[in-house]
Amino acid sequence: MSATVFTIANQKGGVGKTTTAINLSAILAEQKIKTLLIDLDPQANATSGLGIEKEEGGSLYGPLMGEGQAMDKIKKTAFKNLSIIPSEVDLAAAEIELAQKPDYLLQLRTVLQPVIESDKYRAIIIDCPPALGLLSMNSLVTADYLLIALQCEYLALEGLGEILRVVDRLHEAQLTNNSKSEVLS
Ligand SMILES: Nc1ncnc2c1ncn2[C@@H]1O[C@H](COP(=O)(O)OP(=O)(O)OP(=O)(O)O)[C@@H](O)[C@H]1O
Ligand SMILES: [Mg+2]
């Protein structure tokens, strides 16, 4: 059975994306659900939050640029059933370099497909950076479900409208995983 991919996104900063990603991953793992947390934010807060050292060459940057496999970037954590693909600062360059690739919105899905189909994980959680750049867009294209972390305040609604419009445009372009794609907010 292939893994279900959840992405946690919001272009607003400091709204609880990483906290949700870490806690959701930990709870799923605790429930004996084999879970992979993917830190797609160059800030690497989910990586340090799980006590993993940032390591040069340890992120998805290489695979996204056509060098190496995502599977080789997976690290065990201190928690049973919970693994991580860490981030490090070079992912910031991917934000720019992805734009030069053909199919620049499909790169993450392509890179993660072997992991998704590997039978090793039932849940994959992606922690996004606070921007609607190419890393977040790739994550939206890869996901089966989108969780929007949100602070309950008026201005947050403007940001919410923006990300939902992006999801609509990706749907229209038939880039999302249409068979299962849903927004959970
Ligand atoms: N549900 C919550 N209630 C109150 N505070 C929270 C909640 N979730 C997270 N926080 C706090 O809000 C701060 C920002 O959280 P977090 O780093 O998870 O946000 P983020 O959206 O990932 O930030 P960034 O956009 O920089 O990646 C942290 O200090 C965290 O402890
Ligand atoms: Mg974060």
Main features:
185 residues, alpha/beta, seven-stranded mixed β-sheet, 16% strand, binds magnesium ion
**Number of contiguous helices:** 7
* CATH third-level topology: Rossmann fold
Domain module tally: 1
Largest sheet: 7 strands, mixed
Strand content: 15-25%
**SS content category:** alpha/beta
Spans with pLDDT under 50 lasting ≥5 residues? none
- Overall outline: globular
Considering DSSP H and I runs of 4 or more, what fraction of the residues is helical? 25-40%
- According to DSSP, the number of beta strands is 7
Provide an overview of this structure.
The chain has 185 residues and is an alpha/beta fold. It has a single domain, classed as Rossmann fold (3-Layer(aba) Sandwich). It has seven helices and seven strands, in the order βαβααββααβαβαβ. The protein has helices spanning 17-30, 45-49, 61-64, 91-97, 107-116, 134-142, 156-172; strands at 4-9, 35-39, 75-76, 82-85, 123-127, 145-148, 182-184. The protein has a seven-stranded mixed beta sheet with strand order 3-4-2-5-1-6-7, with helices on both faces. α5 packs across α6 (134-142). The chain is globular and about 40 Å long. Bound molecules: adenosine-5'-triphosphate and magnesium ion. Magnesium ion binds at residues 17-18, 41, 45.
Quick gist of this model?
By secondary structure, the protein is of the alpha/beta class. It is built from seven helices and seven strands.
What is this structure's SSE topology?
Layout: E1 4-9, H1 17-30, E2 35-39, H2 45-49, H3 61-64, E3 75-76, E4 82-85, H4 91-97, H5 107-116, E5 123-127, H6 134-142, E6 145-148, H7 156-172, E7 182-184
Parallel strand pairs: 1-5, 1-6, 2-4, 2-5, 6-7
Antiparallel strand pairs: 3-4
Helix pairs in contact: 5-6
Magnesium ion binds next to helix 1.
